[in-house]
Amino acid sequence: MNVTFFLISLGCYLNAVFFHLLHLINRRGWAERVGNISVSLGFIFHTIAFGTRFFQAGHIPITNLHESLSFFAWIIILIYLVLDYKMKIPSLGAFILPLAFIFVLYASIVPKGIQPLIPALQSFWLGIHTVTSFAGYATFAFAFCAGIMYLIQESQLKSKKFGPLYYRLPSLEILDDLSHRIISFGFPLLTIGIITGSLWANSAWGAYWSWDPKETWALITWFIYAAVVHTRFTVGWRGKKAAYLAIIGFCFVLFTFLGVNLLLKGLHSYS
Amino acid sequence: MEIIVFGLSHKTAPIEIREKLSFTKKQASYVHKELAKTKAVKEIMLLSTCNRVEFFAVVEAVQNGMTTLKEFLTGYHHISPEILENVSYCHTQKDAVRHIFRVASSLDSMVVGEPQILGQLKDAYALANQDEAVNTLLPHLIERSFHVAKKIRNETGIGKNPVSISFAAVELAKKIFGSLEEKTVLLVGAGEMSELAAKHLLSNGVKNIYVSNRTYSRAEEMAKIFGGQVMSFSTLKENLQLMDIIITSTAAPHFVFHKEDIQRTLHKRKNSPLFFIDIAVPRNVDPAVNKCDDVYVYDIDDLEMLVNANILERQKEARYAEDLIDRYVEQFWTKMHSLHAMPTIVELTKKCEDIRRQELNKAFSKLSHLSEEDRNVINSMTTAMLKKVLHNPVYFLKKEIDSTNISHYIPIIKKLFNLDGQPEASTKNKREDKNSC
Fold first, then answer.
1. A166 contacts B160? CB cut-off 8 A
2. Which A residues, 21 through 50, put their C-beta within 8 Å of a C-beta on chain B?
3. Do B273 and A166 touch (CB under 8 A)?
4. What is the 3-state secondary structure (H, E, C) of B93-111?
5. What does the H/E/C string look like for A223-253?
6. Please, where in chain B does CATH 3.40.50.720 lie?
7. CB neighbours of B203 closer than 8 A, spacing ≥ 6?
8. CB nearest to B302's CB, from A28, A160, A167
9. Which residues of B touch A90 (CB under 8 A)?
């Protein structure tokens, strides 16, 4: 049941990606409207899928790879819808939606069954720790896209070669501001995610910090984003440098989230 | 009834002829009144701008109407018909509709996408209305063209990317800074183009403007024009950190701003972006400055390149706009079927309404004891009756009549309801009926 809804949302997102990319090419208002309707529909189905799964499982469904990927994409879409409603950043959808779609697609090809909750995860920390961590990661996905868009636009303005994207992408200031603001919002979330994880680790494993690969990589990621926030205020690393940092930071996010589970073995390997 | 467009534009006639054939507002008013009197022309509107002189008309018959307009134009401006023949065009039917839509949407303009034409069209329409030269079909068409123009402007980008250097520079500033509010501009040196750019920046909301010039008095003069402050030439580099947009156009034979100055400035302003618009030749800003992060240096050639890119972009959008126009023309054409019968519908409903009023007044004068409420009930009852009686004929007129059968049905309907103002045949009977009840 929840899987059906999940697959419907996958279809909606695919449609949304198609029309947002089409809009990037032909810049027609209707293409963007169709894209946004699809994304909203997809989000509704995705939410229903999440809700029914929550109900069927009896606990928050962020306990295996499928659920994590799905929730990660869900929260990205949620932030996208809020951003689109509040500030309408041109062409953002054409960058963030394909990214979100990849996660949904990935989630659709891994085992989707509901497993009984293993004892180690039976804790009230589960919800807080996973939601804050993934919300933090999701904001970094936006900073990543804003960074790529910034670099494209910046290189056009510098080289004075005005390709089609020059007309479609927003101004540098908007992109830099988006990146800055979204990281300022996401960084505390990641911090809370790590702290709650540490508290949970203490109650579950008996130690606040045990240099498990996930913990280590999360800490590295945290340092990168701390650097992004810090250097902007102290030495004025904005624009291009901030964009590069945001892109690198997101690569670490991806490794912390997915790479660690696939390549390294540790206490966090549930998926 | 046919719609025709007759006239000439920058595409067909050189300026020497256009200026000879143009009309002032006062003259246009005269034209409206004169042509409205003729039998061949039912409705008329004249659009006269520096790029075009066009008559939009609704005529009984195309050939006859066109001859009337041609003769009027040659007669009024004393120009030989041969010359006019060579430079003018005449569009009929769908082509006429398309032409009007294209003109309104600025697809037929000298610079495609420039919006002035819509304003001029609106003025011309207001004048024609005032002169009572338009009444049924033309208002529908012209108002539709305003709507189409608005749609085209919103749905396509034909008006978006500026094609003049100074506007392009402002647009570029927006691509860097987002909003220009709270930004500070520095004008170094004088010159027509730099002043124009400064003016556009001001109208886009920049907060401060500083003016600097080797001649102090000249700087003061310019500062007055822009409501800005003077900055002495010698302190230019120390104060650079306050600026966001710098327009240079001095006659200096060497660079005024070097990479080292800029790097120092950037450090002081925490890499907040700087935008140099260097209009001077030889250039005032070392091109190496462009290599600094967060600094954008555009010289006159770069701006020219941007303008060219913008023109290409507009052309691309214009092609899409043409497709949209085709669609709107088809829509209007279908809708026009119902407009064919519009005058008859108006006459018919008006006549019935007049009768209703008359009879109602007569009845009320006899039934003086009725309260206000009773009167209202009777009033709305008669209205409803009329509406129901007329519903089918009006529906028929709107849906079934088109250019193929209009000459067949309209006379019949006019005859049936006596809409041509013949003496009323049955008045007497009616009166007798009234008396008997």
1. no
2. 26-29
3. no
4. HHHHHHHHHHHHCCCCCCC
5. HHHHHHHHHHHHCCCCHHHHHHHHHHHHHHH
6. 165-307
7. none
8. A160
9. none
Chain B residues lying within 8 Å of A181, measured CB to CB: none
**What are the DSSP calls for B56-120, one per residue?**
EEEESSHHHHHHHHHHHHHHHHT--HHHHHHH-EEEEHHHHHHHHHHHHTTSSSSSTT-THHHHH
Q: Does the CB of B135 have a partner CB in chain A at under 8 Å? A: no
A86 touches chain B (CB under 8 A): no
Instruction: Return the active site residues of B.
Output: 50
CATH of domain B165-307: 3.40.50.720
Q: What is the residue-level pLDDT of chain B in tens, covering all 437 positions? A: 789 999 999 999 999 999 999 999 999 999 999 998 888 898 999 999 999 999 999 988 889 999 999 999 999 999 899 989 999 999 998 999 999 999 999 999 988 888 899 999 999 999 999 999 998 889 999 999 999 999 999 888 888 888 888 888 999 999 999 989 889 999 998 888 888 888 889 888 898 899 998 888 888 888 888 888 998 888 888 889 889 999 999 888 889 999 998 999 988 888 889 999 998 889 999 999 999 989 999 999 999 999 999 998 888 899 999 999 999 999 898 877 767 777 788 888 889 999 999 999 999 999 888 888 999 999 999 999 999 999 998 888 877 776 677 778 888 888 888 887 777 765 555 444 444 44
A25 chain-B contacts, CB cut-off 8 A:
none
Contacts of B173 in chain A (CB under 8 A): none
Rounded to two decimals, the ipTM of the complex is 0.86
Nearest CB to B178: which of A26, A157, A173?
A: A173
| Best A23, A24, A160, A169 residue to mutate vs chain B (most B CBs within 10 Å) | A160
> Which CATH number, 3.30.2350.10, 3.30.460.30, 3.40.50.2300, 3.90.1570.10, labels domain B2-155?
3.30.460.30
* CA–CA dist A146, B154 (Å, integer): 26
Cβ–Cβ below 8 Å for A171 and B273:
no
Closest CA to A215 of A199, A231, A228: A199
Residues of chain B with CATH 3.30.460.30: 2-155
Mark yes or no for CB contact B157/A174 under 8 Å: no
CB A147 within 8 A of CB A244: yes
